[in-house]
Every structure is written in C-alpha cells, then in structure tokens.
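Sequence in, structure out.
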Amino acid sequence: MVADQALSITGHFSGFGTDIGQLKKRLKKMKGAAVFDTFPKYGAAFRRRFGIDNEQALALFHQTVSMKSVGNLTDFVREHMLEPFDVTPRIDALLHHFDDLNRAHAAVLKAKQQIERLTPLVADCETHTQLGKEVGQLRECREALAPFFAVHKKKLLKKRMANLTDEQTRLTRKAKALESEHKEQMARRDDIRQAIAENGGDRLERLRADIKRFTDQKHKRQAQAKRYADLAQDLAFKPVHTRTDFDDNAAAIQDRKETLEKEKKAHANRCTHLSMNFRDLKTSHESLTEELTSLSARKSNIHARQVKIRRSLCHHLGIDENDLPFAGELIKVREDEAPWEGAAERLMHNFALSLLVPESHYRAVAAWVDTTHLHARLVYYLVRQVPAAKPVDLHPESLLKKLIIKPDTGFYDWMEQELASRFNHACCTDIQRFHKEPWAITKKGQIKSGGRRHEKDDRRDLTDRSHYVLGWTNEAKIRTLKQQCRDLEKQMQGAGKEISRLEARQNTLQEQIFNLIRLGEFQDFSDLDWQAAAKEILHLEAEKQDLETRSDILQTLGMQLEALETEMNDTEKTLKQTRDDLAGNREKQNQTRLMADTCEQDLAGWAAMDPDQATALYRHLESLRKNELPAHTLTIESCASKEREMRDLLQNRINNLDKRISTLAARIIRAMHGYRRDYPLETREVDDAVSSGLEYRAMLDQLRADNLPEFEKRFKALLNENTIREVANFQSQLLREKETIKERIARINRSLSDIEYNPGRYIVLEAELSPDMDIRDFGQQLRACTEGALTGSEEDHYSEAKFLQVRSVIERFRGREGMVDLDRRWTKKVTDVRNWFVFAASERWKEDHTEYEHYTDSGGKSGGQKEKLAYTVLAASLAYQFGLEWGAIRSRTFRFVAIDEAFGRGSDDSTRYSLELFKKLNLQLLIVTPLQKIHIIEPYVSSVGLVYSPDGKESLLRNMSVAEYRERRERT
C-alpha cells in the first residue's frame, strides 16, 4: 500500500474483523491511497514518489543495507551500476522466425531424403522384376527338358528297334539249326553207350565214380592237414603224422591256452600301471610347461595359479596388477648369501604367496574375493599407510639381513615392519647355537619358533628352485623348470617304449590264443588222414586200367563217347547262349517299346505348347546342350545323364538367381519398412511387399515432379530474409548495449573523478572484454551466422552449413532436450551484455593521471581498505543511479541510505572518509554500528537509537538526540 497522507494502525488498520477484503476496500476508497496485489506495481509507485528512476537504483538501496565491502568489483558493477537489457522479445522473435525456417528446411531435407531412399528402392524393385523374368524363363527350360530329350531319344529308339528286329531274325535261324544238331548228337551218344554196355562198360563207370569220390575226399583232407600243420607250426607244436601225434597235441592245447592267458593278463596289468604313470608324467610336464609359459611373460617367481587369480581379479576390477603385488615379488635373498636361499624360501614361502592390497582397493578386492569361487587358496593383507616407526632391533645373525626389499615399491615401510615382526630368525650354522636361540633357522631348513615349535619340511628338496617364489627375476627358476621338463620327457619316452613293447606282446599272445582255439576245432585224426584216401585211389586206378587194357573195342568206344560228349557240351553251350541272346533281344525290344511309350508321354508336353514357343525352347535347349555341356555323342543311355546335367545346370542358375532375388526382396522389404516407419503419412495405403513396387515408383515420380528446387529457393529466402537478418539485428542491438555500457562507465568515472580517494588520487573504473569462453564463442557464432548475409545475393549465401550455424545458436536459446536448465543459464549469461565485461579499479594521480595502484577486486586488502573501496564505489553508484550532484540539494531526490554494521572493521580514518563522502552527497544515513565507533559517527548524525539488554533476556531501544546522548554519557 502507498498513501500520500499519514496513517495510523488504530485509525486506519483496525476494525475489519477477520475479512481482509473489507480492509482492502476501505483503504482503496481513501484519497491519495493505493492498494496493490503485486510487487512490481507497488515498486513503481514507490519509486515514483521517491524520485528513483529505475529498479536497479532501488536494488542498490537494498544492497547498502548489508554492504560491508566490495567482494568482487566486476559483480558489483554489473549488478548495481549497469541496467540489464531485456533480450527476451528479441530471442522470441528469433525463435519464431527460425520455426518458419526450420519447417522449410525440414521440407527440403525430407524431400531430398525421400528421393535418396526411394531411388535405390525403386531400382531394386525393377531389378527384382527383371530377375524374376529370368528365373521364369529358366524354369520353363527346366520343365521342357523331358520333352526335349524325348525327341532325341525317340529317334535313337526307332533306330535301335530296327537293329534289334534284324538281330532277332538271325538268332532264331541259328537256334533252330543248333537244336537239330543237338538232337542228332543225342541219338549218336545213345548208340555208343549201348555198345559200351554190351562190352563191360558198367564196372568201368562205377570205378570212375569211386575214383572221383576218393579224389575229392583226398583234396579236402589235404587242405585241412595243411591248415592244421600251419597252426601247429606257429604254436611250436610237433607235426602230426599219426593218431598218437594228434592226441598228444589235443591234450597240450588247453594247458598252453591257460599259460598264454595268464601271461597276457600280467602284461595287461603292467601296461595299465605304466599308462597311469605316463599320464602322471604328462600332467606334470603340462603343468611345468604352463608354469614356464607364465614365467616367460613376467619377471617374478610366483606360481602361475596365484598369478592367474590376481590377473582375473585385476581384470574385473580394472586395477593395474602392479598395484597388487605378491609379497615374494618384493623380496629376494642377497647374492652373497646364496647358501641360505633354500632356508629362506622354506621359511617365507606362504607369506611370499600373500597378496598385498592397498587400503584404496581393499573394499573392492574383498567383495570380489567373497563372491568368486577361486578354485584355489588366496591370502591377502590389508596394507595401510604406516607411521614412521623406530628401527627394529634385529638379531645380529637375523635372516632379514640376508634379504633385500625392492627399493622402489610403495610397500617398503610396511614390508620392513612386517618382516621384522615375523621373520627375525637367527641363522645358525651349528646345532648348539640353534638350541640356544628362541627364533632360529639352519641351512638345512629346520625352523624354531618361540623356543618351542620346531619344523622341518623335507617333502621337497631344499635346493629345488622350481618351488622358489622370492625375488623379482626368474631366470634361475626358468632354467630349473626347463631341466625338469627335459627329465620328464626322457621318462615319458622310456615309459612310452615299454608300453608299446607290452602292447605288441599282448597282440602276439592274443593271436596265439586264437590259433589254439582254431586248432582245437579239429576233433579227429581222420579229418587229416589224406594218405588213406590216396591209397584207395591207387587201388581203384589199377583196377580201372586193367579193364581198359583188356578191351580195345571198349577203349575205342570210350574215346568216341568222350569226343561226342565234348561236341554235345559245345553245342549245348552255343544253343544256350543263342537262346539267352534271343531272350535278351526280346527283353531289349520290350524295354525299347516301354522307353518309346515313355517318350510319347514326355512329348505330350510339346503338344500343349504354342508351336513357336516350343520351337524357341527346343533351339535354346539344343544350344545349351552343345555349348554348355562337355563334348559328347548322344545315346539312348546317356540321354538321362545329360538331362540330369542340364537340369543341374539350369537348377544352379535358378538357385543363384533365387538367392539374389531373396536377398534383394529382403533388402527391398527392409527399405520399405524403414521408409514406412519414417514416413507413415505418405505410406498409409501401401505395405511392406515387393508387389508394392509400383506404388513406391509412383511416390518417387511424384517427388521428382514436385520441383525440389522451389523448396530450396524458399528455404534460402527464409534463411537470408528473416532468420539471418533477425540474428544480425539481435547482434546489432547487443553491440549497441555494449557501447551503452562503455558510456555509462565513462559517466560513473566522471563521478569518481570528483572523489578524492586518497590525498591527490582518485579512482577510475576500467572495463575490459571478458575472457569467458562461452561469451567469446557466442560472439564468434553470431559473426559466423551473419557473415555475408546482407550483401543481397541470395544464391551465394544459401548453404546447409549456414543453417546449421543458426540452428546451433537457436537450439541453445530454446533449450536442448535434457539440457534445458544448462542452456537457460547459458542464454542468460551470454545475452546479458554486462557479462561481456570484467571491471577493475585504477587508483591514479590527479596531477598527471598516472596509475598508482590497480585493483581487480578487493581481495588481499585490509579491512579498512576494503571498506574504503566499498564506500567509494557505493558513493559513485548512488550518484549515478539516483542522479545526484556533488553539493546540490534537491527535495524530490531520494537520498536515504541504510548501512548495517557500518565501519566495524575499518580504521577511524576510513570511517571519517566514508562519512565525509556521504555528507558531500547530502545523503540521509541510517547507520547500524557497534558502540566503539560512536565517537567517530557522532559529528555526522543528529539522533541515536541505543539498543541494550539490562537482564540479558530481552532487548530495549532508547531513542535520543545526539546532544542528549552526550549529556547522558558525561553523567555516567
């Protein structure tokens, strides 16, 4: 509320009950009074009555209430000596014009992108159509293969049928002649047999039959005897000549078999044992090889399994392996103390395999170890920074004196203390000394701890370097492991040879057992006695020869019968072959007729075709047969294989084209899907199918017909005529504000030149361009946006780059997604021209205006200096903002200044300086200050308000004039 008359609480602000609205109505009816609902209107009425030109002057008045010093000169000048420039309307205009430009740009880009995406899509659709036609033609050729080869086959079958008919006639005549000849031979044979029977030929026939029977029996027994003899020889059995020999061998077979099976079993057991030993040797060799591979990639002697655990841990936690060393990597035995190396390794082995974890990694390492199955044992120590400790009193013969800690490690202090507390063992060269020491160790590796516990672990040789883990070099361990690998390889080689020898012997024994089983299959000596059959044959041959020599007629007839039977056999064979040939000829004729019928069925396909199409297909296929297939002569039998070859040829081409079509169709569908997804409005009536290619062709034709250059021309016009010109105007306005600030600083400096800051010196404010990168970049962006934009040439200034430059600035004015608050702060900073400057104060001599001292801010000054600079700048600000003149009195000028805790930290001189300064401006002061400064303030004030608390519970205010205050002070 603002009123031009005096008001009181009881007279004007009481008697309205609980309805504040009634009070407002009553106050509004008062003459010269105004009630406001918002502060801006109230502030304007307040400034109007007190002659305050702007809100910044009122803000300066508020600032003086709590002002003690100028904390940052630049901030003070910006906030209280320069008026802000409202850039919101300008930015809104930029955003409005850019929206039009952006729509035009989007239209141009959209049309370009649509054409760019539709052009290959439509081309792919046309290629797909063309490939489909080619596949269709190839399929027609493939389907016409059967009738095509049927034509060729029909010609060949017709020729074959004529040949088969001629051959049948010839064979029929030959068969009839042979049948007649065979009948005549049978008649002659019957006559000869009758004559032989009449001359004693029946006994001769029986003799011949018996001789043949015994001859067959002899051959069979000879074969069995040979097989038996071979088996017996392989098994070292004696040859069989009599039944006794056979029975002796039969009795020895079972015993020999049992002996061989026992030997085989013993060899099998030995082979199994050696195989297990070989497997153990191989496992050890592989373990050593893995250890060697690991050692060759590093310098330490730590076992590969422990290194593997550390590598996995560091990989998952992103820690350098050097940050997590094993204790053994930081310790080694001195070279001149090598005889004690084995004992040191035995004593410190477990500790050496412990991982050292700095406190910074401890939580992550502990969590990983807890949640991970290590498949091994891991010990790690939390290593904290240890304070510098007093040197440990080591035993004169301490093992630690034979060790070296790696000097460049950050764990040195911790290691030194840990080793001293755990391994301060005396090195004893004789057992008597060992008895006396409570903590001791011998070269043989016996360890004594606390005077009671003794340990000596000889499971491994003390000098076996393969298990050493101390030191940061591993050449010696690698040499040892390589030698062990070579020793294992020799053992494996020997074991392998022995296993091979045993397996070969087992195979030999198994073969002998099989031969024994085969030999046991012969049950009786008569199965082998071929000599008895041979003797019987000799008797029968003698009787037969006797009969034959007694009759020349019988011999002649026998010779005639034998010759005739030979002729008959030849005739029968020839007749049989002829009949077979006839049967084969008839079968071939039947097959030829069936093939001819099949050809007629295949040829039915030609009848359904258009004659011209059939002729074209035949010529095309004939060309393929001659040009694509290897050189050949077509036969009935080869027709099927050539048809398959041509079918495979055509099918391969079809398959290749189908793959291309399938790939192309998938690409077309993907392109259509993406196009429909990105442009749903234009594609709402089409779908993702190759068959929709015509619709996409129509879209492309329409886009090309829509004249894209016209869209680009419109975009250029909007870019040059509206947006860039608006940016240029915005830039010009900011530059004008920049010049205005320079002018205002000059006016303030005129006020400061009238103030004697120190004897003979005055203060000048200096304005320099801000080094802030955001502000500098913003200026460069504005210049880039407007360079060459107003020359009048539309064609030369259109470019996508220019649009992107403008958009970069506009998007930050608007606020980018996810960065709205950041961009809002950026916009406020770079468009407030006051932020384009940083300010400093220069103290100069009045006589020649040379600089005495330069102040960038009040930092580094004493309390009095800060207070003095603050009030000097404040006085100049008040003079500027309130329009004051030195020594002039204006009744309508607002001259009231309230200063809280004034002059509390300054010197008496700076306090008097400030008061004299405010006095020159005729300011009305309300000063709140500690009591100790009252003697300085007294000459400049007319009344005093004394705040005191007599009982320490509540404060009291006593108002009095300065004269009354002095009088009371003198009385007390």
